[in-house]
Amino acid sequence: MPADPLNPRPLGSSGLEVSALSLGSWRTFERLPAADGAAILRAASDQGITFFDDARYNDETGQAPIPTGYSEVLFGELFRMAGLRRDDIVVANKLWWEFWPEQSAAAELDASLQRMRFDHVDLIYANPPPPGLAVADLVAATAGLVIAGKARAWALVNWPAGQCAEAVQAAAGLAVAPPCAVQLPYSLVRRDWVEDPVMTGALTAAGAGVIASFCLAGGILSGKYRSGPATGRQAGSLADPRRCCSRWPARM
Asked: I want to staple 44 with a disulfide (CB 3.0 to 4.6 A). Which of 23, 76, 92, 247 is the partner?
């Protein structure tokens, strides 16, 4: 892969620089031999990818020693196996609010850091607030992680436009740094979240970047559903008119 397309670029208003592509780890490394996982991280780094996105999720293999968060344990272990320098990589993780209010934002991130065996993440994404958690309180708690040195910047993931605008306004009212980026589904067949005028206004006000996810619509845009039985994760959504491109002729 040519290095130029991966040249670092600013991550919104954070002051961080990241490669154009990020290496994700969702539902990945527990299904691979450890040596292969470490080789993937090493190869990504060698090709100029400096932005790694980790996340906690429930074990689906039935073999993990803990029911949730083993993905973080593995990521940390493979990171070290790959011989990567922590200062060379921008590591992102997510707040799910799964155990809120019993588990605060700080406690949730502390648990993730303990599993990863890192002392901080570079970017912490906040998922939309659970019922009962006000947007302003979420902003204060998440931005507080940056102030406490547990993260270097914070961002949002999968927020609808109106709530995103509310979060940006709340940050201004609290005099804390705004979210530096928003991770949103963005592809040829799903452009509405990013291109919504309310969203673009909020991004502009925050000086935030867009981190595009689901860019191949769960594999639909790769053409995998044109051949053989449709048994992948998106098999049940092929009738969605927005995804009818899965039935395009191969020449298109």
From this structure: 23
What is residue 220's predicted lDDT score, i.e. its pLDDT? 74
Residue where the block lists tokens 């769960």: 218
From residue 230, alpha-carbon distances to 5, 235, 239, 241, 246 in Å are 33, 5, 12, 17, 11
pLDDT band at 10 (very low <50, low <70, confident <90, very high): very high
Is the bond preceding residue 65 a cis peptide, omega within 30 degrees?
no
Q: Distance between CA 115 and CA 128 in Å, rounded? A: 23
Summarised one tens digit per residue, pLDDT across range 218-248 is 777 777 777 665 566 666 666 665 555 444 3
pLDDT at site 6? 79
Q: What is the phi/psi pair of residue 160, to 5°?
A: -70, 160
Cα(181)–Cα(18) distance, integer angstroms: 12
Tokens of 141: 């708690």
Q: What is the rounded CA–CA span in Å between residue 160 and residue 166?
A: 10
pLDDT at position 152, please?
98
Name the phi and psi angles at 169, rounded to 5: -65, -40
Q: 212 and 182 in contact (C-beta within 8 Å)?
A: no
Task: Indicate if the alpha-carbon torsion angle 42, 112, 127, 120 is positive or negative.
Answer: negative
d(CA 28, CA 203): 31
